[in-house]
Design a protein that fits this description.
Layout: H1 2-36
Amino acid sequence: MNLLSVQGAGAGYLLGLFLLCLIVVHVLKLARIGYRTFGKKLPPQQPEPREPKPDPVYFIVERKKKRAKSEYSAPREIKFR
């Protein structure tokens, strides 16, 4: 019984160490990207000219027609053997 608790603790430490390494790697990547863009200035944005809205297009759609109900014969009796 004691062996299982040691294995469980080891699995917990392994998972914690994996998450810690994953977080550190991503923080370093994001810091490097941020450092590269730190000295750059973005050009001023010019407002985009608005285009007039096009006229709406209407489609004429024919409605589906219901089928005429067909006459059904009397139900048959099913026998299971």
